[in-house]
Amino acid sequence: MKDRKAIVKVPASTANLGPGFDTLGMALSLYAWIEMSESKTGETTFEYYGDGMDGLPKDKSNLLYKVAQLVFNEAGVEVPELHIAMYSDIPLARGLGSSASAIVGALVAANALIGSPLSDDKLFQLATELEGHPDNVGASLFGGIVVSAWDGSAAQHVRIEPNERLQTLVAIPAFHLETEKARHALPSGIAMADAVFNVGRSSLLVAALASGELGLIRHAMQDRLHQPYRAALIPGMAEILERAVDFGALGAALSGAGPTLIAFVDANSPDKATLEQFLKGTLAKEGIEAETLWLAPCTSGPVVTVEEGPIGGGAGSTVSITLLDRIKGEVKA
Ligand code: HSE
Questions:
Q1: Domain assignment of residue 333, yes or no
Q2: How sure is the predictor about 312, in pLDDT bands with cuts at 50, 70 and 90?
Q3: d(Cα 88, Cα 332) in Å, to the nearest integer?
Q4: Which of 53, 134, 161, 221 is the 20 to 30 A CA-CA neighbour of 46?
Q5: Is the domain of 149 the same as that of 242?
Q6: Which atom of ligand 1 lies nearest, measured to the CA of 21?
């Protein structure tokens, strides 16, 4: 890996899609970039770019560093010190899978750095174990819509190609909501009737997404396992989930553990501006400032570039090209 540099572009994701709690995920066209190389200084160093990234640890307690070490240990490779850079357009703690993207990006970058000895399925198992559920990591790793199940030791998945008419509108509240807090809001048990309700909706949703029957999404994107319990944490959410279809959405859900709300929309819908206004207006009524973004499903997983040798800003080059210089034009910064 001497003089090798791996640069990985990894998508954000939305999890649950309403009824598929800890099971369904979809990759979105919003990205983070992770660059990894052997350190030239003999010490592990970090560079972060992007909103809210300043507070992340710059020592070996760093998640990206720990994930990389896990890959090297699994592959039986000893790696000295690393240089790790990250830029992200994925807002932190908003329900768009920022931690899953970081985990997947670091796994893929570290694996690429040592010649990719670990399979994608192995990376999926490691990512699921690290994240504690497979929905976000599966989507970021495989792209498209991913249906998965994890029994605590092994995860299985099937990828579905998103229908080309499927688009999403996300409303991202300005406040953070840690997943742990949103998981604590959930009860320890649920009624049989609610379980049956969700099995039906989740199965119908997978079938509708796989067959392109987008008209069924409004019936399928309903949930009784987590959204009702999380609604109190996100003022305006209940109204948005109930009424988004009246404003032209195919369906609406809490994105992951929130606080972002996501509407599925037919790309040809004439009601997009009205729907966007409804989402923003409903949150504003509750005093919540929110950014709205139109995002397409991202149909591929991480895009990896490996550079070898001391040329053009590659590892070991005397010309220093920062990660931000490299991706300028593709990112918000
Ligand atoms: N399935 C997870 C949850 C996604 O809803 O808690 C957020 O990490």
A1: no
A2: very low
A3: 9
A4: 134
A5: no
A6: 1
